[in-house]
Amino acid sequence: MQYITAAVLAAFVGYVGAWYFGALEGNFALLLFLATVVTGAYWLAERFIFLPRRRQAAQALEAAAAQRRAELDRMGIQKVDQDDLQEAKGRILMQPWWLDWTAGLFPVIAIVFLLRSFLFEPFKIPSGSMIPTLLVGDLILVNKFTYGLRLPVVNTKITEGNPLQRGDVVVFRYPPQPNMDYIKRVVGIPGDEVAYLNKRLTVNGTPVPTTALPDFFDPDAMRYFKQFEEQLGAHPHRLLNNPEVPAFVQGASNYQFRDQCRYSVEGVTCKVPEGHYFMMGDNRDNSLDSRYWGFVPDGNIVGKAFFVWMNFGNLKRIGPFN
After folding, report:
1. Closest Cα partner for 183 from 277, 263, 303, 91?
2. What are 259-296's pLDDT values in tens digits?
3. Is the peptide bond before 219 cis (omega within 30 degrees of 0)?
4. Which residue in 117, 129, 287, 290 is the catalytic one?
5. Is residue 184 flagged as an active site residue?
6. Which of 184, 199, 287, 290 is catalytic?
7. Worst-scoring range by mean pLDDT, 71-75, 182-186, 245-249?
8. Which domains are assigned to the chain?
9. How far, in Å, CA of 195 to CA of 198, rounded?
10. What are phi and psi for residue 197, nearest 5 degrees?
11. Contact of 174 with 164, CB cutoff 8 Å
12. The Peptidase S26 domain covers which part of the protein (predicted)?
C-alpha cells in the first residue's frame, strides 16, 4: 500500500509542479476536490480497516505476553521487563508514514475544501483594473453563498440566493478562458441596456450620477489620474479615467451575443441577454472587461468580493469595500 500511496502523492506533486512551471493549466478547485476524496478514502480505510488491524495485533501481542508471564510465574520467575512490551505496542499502533500524509491530512483538507467551496474563498488582486477600489497586492475574501451555493468544480447552482445587483464587485470565471478568475464590477444585469459613450456610463437611458474628486496618484505608474465618484446601485464607488485614452473600444473580440452590442467611435452600447451580466473595471481606461470580450454567464459567477483581509505593503488597506 505504501508504494501505491507514494505513486499517488508523486502524481499530486507532479501536477502542482507542471502547473507552477506553466506546462499545463491548473485547476485548484479540481485539485482540492481530488485531494479531499483521496485523503477521505484513506481516512475511512484507516478508521475501519488499518487501525482495527493494528489494535488486533497489539492485543495479540499483549495476550502472548500475558501467556509468557503466566508460564514464567509457574517457573517461579517473578521479575519481567514491561518496557519492551509497551515499546513494541507503540510501534504496532503507530500510523505508518503513508497514512500520516493521507488520512492524517484529511480533516484539514476537508475543512479547507468546505470553507472554500461554500463559504469564503481568498483571492489576490493581480492587476490594476479595479483601482482605486482594489489595489495590486490586495488579498480579498469572496462570499460564496450570497448569490446561491454552487457545487465545486462543476459550479452548478444548488440554492438560489440573492440576485446580482448593479454595483456589486464580483469574481467570475473569465468567459474566454474559464480556468482563470477575473474580478470586475457589475454594471448591467439581464435586460439592461448599457451604454459607455464618451466615457460616461448610461443604464437604460439614464446617465449614472458621477461627481468629480481630487486626482488619484498611482504610485506604480508614478502619475495622477482623473478620479470620480459614481453612484451605481446602493453604494457609491470611485473610478478612474484617463483623458489621454480615446473613447472608442479597440480590439473587441467576436464573442457570443456580440450582435447585442453596437460599437462606434464614442464607445459601445449593449443589450444584456438573459442569464448574463455586463462587467467593467473601476480603472475604466485600463480594464479588459465586457466591452472587449462580452457578457458573463450566470454559470461563471464565483461570488461577491467584499473584504480586504491583507495587503503586506499597506496594512491600512484591510477592511470592507464597495
Report:
1. 303
2. 999 999 999 999 999 999 999 999 999 999 999 999 99
3. no
4. 129
5. yes
6. 184
7. 71-75
8. 2-113 (no CATH), 122-320 (2.10.109.10)
9. 10
10. -120, 130
11. no
12. 99-310
